[in-house]
């Protein structure tokens, strides 16, 4: 169920961010429009309006209605190449729009076929209009490379999402295996001893009591083992989470800048900030589409402060389950927590944990000096 919700959120993020990014390139219409201002022709104005409408419709529908997007792409290609043939000149600046739309709208083998076709037709029209070798090369380069870059970029984003999903699935399987290994034998032994207690209760109370004591001992040992195993998943401490965050961001193609200074935290603050690092970095990898993520930790006289800032999408205003759970943990631990759009774009998560006065001497965060390397870049 959670996987389905994640897919829905991923699709929503693509629909919100994709059209806005690719719509920017419609600015190429400015070049033939500027020429049109010097010698206005209604037919050419109608052609430019059609190119603009078809391109914007195509890139928006690509994330919601693929059939409509393909129809808009076909119309865009026809109008653009016809305009190049009739008016020439700066209309050739619009050929990259067609290739960009091909990279956004089409999938699989259709992309290279469409890009090659559009590029060859644009080159042929350039030659037909009397363009020289340099003009043909410029049209071929601009038309071909624009679509290739867009297509490869989208493929990388899809691959990154698939890798993140596979990593979550692998972690769940590992957790299931570990729990089975921990509890399978122990629970079987407890069942055997419970049956022995039932058989002995009526004829040998002392033996039954010994079996019951064994059950208690086995149960306590199993509980300790489960707690130890779960702590490996749920609370590695700040230093361990910083190391894991750097590795995870690097695998996702995000540059991590970690600045933890010489932070030495009490166990409570260390665990809480470790939780915040894990959840914050998970959000960056799965939802933000960021290029850079900065993680800063500072300890003052009154509080230890963690900030995670990325340059990706700020996301919807409503928090998801992870951020809500983190806010609840912060409230329970007396910490201040906030998460939302950062100044200048991106997303910012901040948690401030009070530093108790008169606390026991604090050791370094678990994991040695891993959290004490300022400016670490992954």
From TrEMBL:
SUPFAM superfamilies: ATPase domain of HSP90 chaperone/DNA topoisomerase II/histidine kinase
MF term (GO), any: phosphorelay sensor kinase activity
TM ranges: 20-38, 45-63, 75-98, 110-129, 135-154
Entry annotated with the keyword Transmembrane helix: yes
Positions of the UniProt region annotated as Disordered: 353-378
Keyword entries, A-Z: Kinase, Membrane, Transferase, Transmembrane, Transmembrane helix, Two-component regulatory system
Entry GO terms, CC: membrane
Span of domain Signal transduction histidine kinase subgroup 3 dimerisation and phosphoacceptor: 171-236
Superkingdom, taxonomy of origin: Bacteria
Entries under PANTHER family matching the protein: NITRATE/NITRITE SENSOR PROTEIN NARX-RELATED, SENSOR HISTIDINE KINASE DESK
Name of the protein this chain belongs to: Two-component sensor histidine kinase
Source organism per UniProt: Planobispora longispora
Lineage of the organism: Bacteria, Bacillati, Actinomycetota, Actinomycetes, Streptosporangiales
